[in-house]
Amino acid sequence: MLFNSLDFALFFPVVFALYWFVAKDHLKWQNLLLLVASYFFYACWDWRFLFLLMFSTVLDYYTGLQMYDAKSQRMKRFWFWLSVGINLGFLGIFKYYNFFAESLAASLSAVGFHADFWTLQVILPVGISFYTFHGLSYVIDIYKDRIKPERNFVDYSVFVSFFPLLVAGPIERATHLLPQIQSKRVFDRNNAVDGLKQVLWGLFKKVVIADNCAEYVNMVFANSENYSASTHAVAAIFFAFQIYGDFSGYSDIALGTARLLGIDLLRNFSYPYFSRDIAEFWRRWHISLSTWFRDYLYIPLGGSKGGDWMRIRNTFIIFLVSGFWHGANWTFIVWGLLHALFIMPSVIFKTNRNNLEIVAAGRIFPKFKDLTAIVVTFGLTVFAWIFFRADSLAGAFQFIGEMFNASMFSKPEGVRNTTVWMIVALVVVEWLGREQKYGIAKLVDRWPLVLRWLFYYTIVFLIFEFRGSSQQFIYFQF
Amino acid sequence: MKQFLKKTVLFLCIPMAVMLIGLLLPPTPRAEQSLLLVAPIKDSMLQHVKQPRIILVSGSSMGFGLVSQIVKDSLHRNPINTGIHGGMGLYYLLDNTAQYIQKGDIVVLAPEYHQFFGDFCEGNEELLRVYFDNKNGLDFFKLRAVQLKKTYPYIPRYAMSKFIPSQYFNLKTQEFYSKRAFNEYGDVNQHWGQTWPNPVVFEKIDGDYLNTDVLQAVVEFNELVKSKGATLYFTFPGYLEHSFGVGKPQIKEFEAALRKTNLTILGTPEQYIMTPDLIFDTPYHLTKEGATKRTQLLVKDLKTQMQKDHLE
């Protein structure tokens, strides 16, 4: 069930009505309803994988309790590694086994040995990387004595499988989400209206921006040798907007939906394409994953406390693992590696925390220096996205090769004006709203009611009139 | 909460009302030029063309891929080319044709390969438009459940299209994609003699699984045709060489499944591969020369089979 489907438009009002009218005064019933709704939501993709989700939930719930109740450090460690091992084992089997088997076979074949490993014909369960990381953070936090385990199984299950975040995040933390699940929710009209606005903006980003860009990007990447260099460049830029519209649009819908149910989720995007360097980009892109890696990998590895070499080493590790998290393909690893290289100057010269404040805060136009930095940073991310989008490394290098030749100055082929205008509209609105939580949060708040509604109706109209052909959310595959 | 619900319902009611008005308004001038407008005309042909008849069923690969005059001259049967647009979906093509089949008809079914993969057979926006612009809109709700599920999301967009200026002004469209594109047999012939600068090339057949439900629907259609005293032959569309090459694993998977059924199959997919010079604007749309070649191949296969079946 996609957020941008009429199935969801029917599903959600039913959940909303039951949640706020039938189960309103009973927290237990509200949580049980959320759990049933979440499992139904997940089962709509493939009911068989519901058992995997349930198993993962039971595993982390049980090992969390065992760790907390363990009489010795040895037993605590045993339960911890059991949970981590099984969680990563599932991830390894479903997501990475074929990659390792094929890569090993290719390496052996390169040195003259023939090895024929079994490959698995398995479908990747939707959202497995997200709920595995969700569960892992819970288990690690208990092991490190940062939190106590949740003893109510329903509450814990809702924490893992709450449907707005189940398949593509944000990756929540027990310290943030569990207390909200445990406490009584009170309907707040302003919060709900804000949630609806965020859902609307998310739909615009997904349906109008991402899906329209996807049509062009798919056309060029599928048949790149037939297009000019300038067309390649446009496709690469469109992919940058596609993945942003797709993933941040999904996050906006998830956050808005959760707010309608009285729950605040972690913010996942903060206008990443207005970043002035790569370090700032990573503070603004997929924030819940970046902070997860910071807290559960970078800091345990020593963070930046062990001198320059350790900082450099840890930065490379983080980016390579982050790339690999996205998918079992060398393209993702190279994407991560490129970002590690791009961020390296600021790590070495310790300028990675130079741009912490919002760009051009309180002003309409940025300074020339900021604008230049934004354009350069965007250019670097667009270049790296080529690897992220390509099916193989060879395909990525071919695409880049075709992007730099004399036809760079010819007119790009097949670009629809409406797509360009919609991207311009997105950039303008997000720039104007960059000091808020999402693009249109406060943009028209001071306008008279009629104009405000007209503005929202315009977005609704654009969604229906200019929606691209429906595409699966990209991050579902991770 | 009450105020929130009141305002939300009010906010939603306005576009709902606009949408309802959009649905009830007559087709826009642009829609009236669309090639979909021939759907009722082709239905009328299916009702009124005299025996002996041969009905050719598919999407635009049939509309753009047949010279019916050759069929008529060679087989001495009155051809009815029902091909309009693949986006109407194979379920629609089967169900719509089924109601007009008469005793003695020969039905030739040659769907695009895309119809057998994923949910393409359930139809797209074109299916919705056929009903709301050209037929009785209420009949739309009598379609199969899978067709409704696939196409109902297009309702808001369709309704809103009634309020878009481009639907009323600057209506110039390609003649071969208009209602004027067809000859008396239902062939698209407006493009004959023209060339298209950059034909689309399919790099894959969309839809990640072979849809066995639609294959079963074809088998059931065959039973229905037989029960009416008519004969069904299954054959393959003309398809661009390159697109055939990249889609070959899927096409062979489909062919293997097809050959396990009790359908009478004419020829092979390879037989109907078309070189680029015979292609007009998409891998299924043929030039006059392409359509002639395809028709001659089809007639040859048909003659052989009809002799076997004592239908000549």
UniProtKB/TrEMBL annotation, chain A:
<feature type="transmembrane region" description="Helical">
    <location>
        <begin position="78"/>
        <end position="97"/>
    </location>
</feature>
<keyword id="KW-1133">Transmembrane helix</keyword>
<keyword id="KW-0472">Membrane</keyword>
<keyword id="KW-0812">Transmembrane</keyword>
<dbReference type="InterPro" id="IPR051085">
    <property type="entry name" value="MB_O-acyltransferase"/>
</dbReference>
<dbReference type="GO" id="GO:0016746">
    <property type="term" value="F:acyltransferase activity"/>
</dbReference>
<feature type="transmembrane region" description="Helical">
    <location>
        <begin position="39"/>
        <end position="58"/>
    </location>
</feature>
<keyword id="KW-0012">Acyltransferase</keyword>
<feature type="transmembrane region" description="Helical">
    <location>
        <begin position="370"/>
        <end position="388"/>
    </location>
</feature>
<keyword id="KW-1003">Cell membrane</keyword>
<dbReference type="Pfam" id="PF03062">
    <property type="entry name" value="MBOAT"/>
</dbReference>
<protein>
    <submittedName>
        <fullName>D-alanyl-lipoteichoic acid acyltransferase DltB, MBOAT superfamily</fullName>
    </submittedName>
</protein>
<dbReference type="GO" id="GO:0042121">
    <property type="term" value="P:alginic acid biosynthetic process"/>
</dbReference>
<dbReference type="InterPro" id="IPR024194">
    <property type="entry name" value="Ac/AlaTfrase_AlgI/DltB"/>
</dbReference>
<feature type="transmembrane region" description="Helical">
    <location>
        <begin position="117"/>
        <end position="141"/>
    </location>
</feature>
<dbReference type="InterPro" id="IPR028362">
    <property type="entry name" value="AlgI"/>
</dbReference>
<keyword id="KW-0808">Transferase</keyword>
<dbReference type="GO" id="GO:0005886">
    <property type="term" value="C:plasma membrane"/>
</dbReference>
<feature type="transmembrane region" description="Helical">
    <location>
        <begin position="454"/>
        <end position="475"/>
    </location>
</feature>
<dbReference type="InterPro" id="IPR004299">
    <property type="entry name" value="MBOAT_fam"/>
</dbReference>
<comment type="similarity">
    <text>Belongs to the membrane-bound acyltransferase family.</text>
</comment>
TrEMBL record, chain B:
<protein>
    <submittedName>
        <fullName>Uncharacterized protein</fullName>
    </submittedName>
</protein>
